[in-house]
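It is worth pausing here to work through a concrete case rather than discussing structure prediction in the abstract. The textbook approach is simple: state the sequence, then state the predicted structure, then interpret. We follow exactly that order.
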Amino acid sequence: MNRSEGADHFALLGGRVILPRKLIFDNAYLRETDSAFVGGSLIEGIGNAYSDVDVHVITDELLRESQIEPQRHYRVLSSERSLLKGSDPDATVFLIHTVIPGTHIKVDIEYRARSEIEQLALLVNDTFEYAVHSLVLLTKYMSARDMAFIHRLFNSHSLCGESTLEYLRERIGLARFRYLMYRWKASDFSVLLDILGAWDDRDWIRCADLARENMVTQFQSYTHLCGNTSYHRKWIIRYAQIVSVDQRLYERYLFLLTTSCGTSQSELQNYILSTIDFVDDLFEAGHQVLRQEPIYPSGASACEAIDEYFRSEAEAYSEMEVAYRKKAYGVRETPTRKWFRA
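Step two, the predicted structure:
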């Protein structure tokens, strides 16, 4: 096992907590052919005293309970997510929880077979190829666990097996993964219909709630295009401060997120339409990012693909849906607020 070069410890929480590399190696049972990296919000410098440290181990064959000392650790989980306490020697190990001495910070050491990671890389590439040729619907998803692994792979420190980790990063592709994170959230027409339905029913509180949540989702999708690869909603603001989002949009987002939308009909309507206008501007900002990456669909060719999709469908679709989906590709002929009847 060739350990990656670096400091002998990680300084967490501004140096208030020290995580020795030795503590990780003493608890991870690493073997000669393993690859491993450490990530998570604390390693990235955005976590807090209640956050965990996440270590990922890629191995040819998963450890079995008989190869570890379960009693040394805070908690050990099997691949079936049951607790391992030393009575099931053939059970494979999924996760080891240990604790940094003198703190409440857990170090989670998760194991994955190399073959599983190869399949994950293939899934990303296949899903990306599907996504760039299907600009209306993207119904192929990925588990939260897989998304977290990939995010940490690109935002981590290598512990050992650096050549394997670099191979995986190249195989998965940061730009491809960012695009998928964006597409899974961006310009969902069904959500717009829900907001319009609540507006037409004069259900103002529910409409404002839906509009606010849509605004949050669309802003997060924009941060994905700009470099954020974390699927967690809780970190939107932190990553918006780190990646290259438009500062004016960030400030508008904070205002709409924290301002009171009021309780009267006129106040609620104004708030709803303000979020709708903001999302239109997010589409335009996202369009500017899309057109800078050659592997992303964008501009006129993307709009042509959308037109072709609707021409090939048996059912008739509204002009509203076509126009809304084209907003992400620079078409701004009709402000979305025009579809909200007075």
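Step three, interpretation. Residues 265-290 form the longest helix (26 residues). The CA atoms of residues 49 and 105 lie 7 Å apart.
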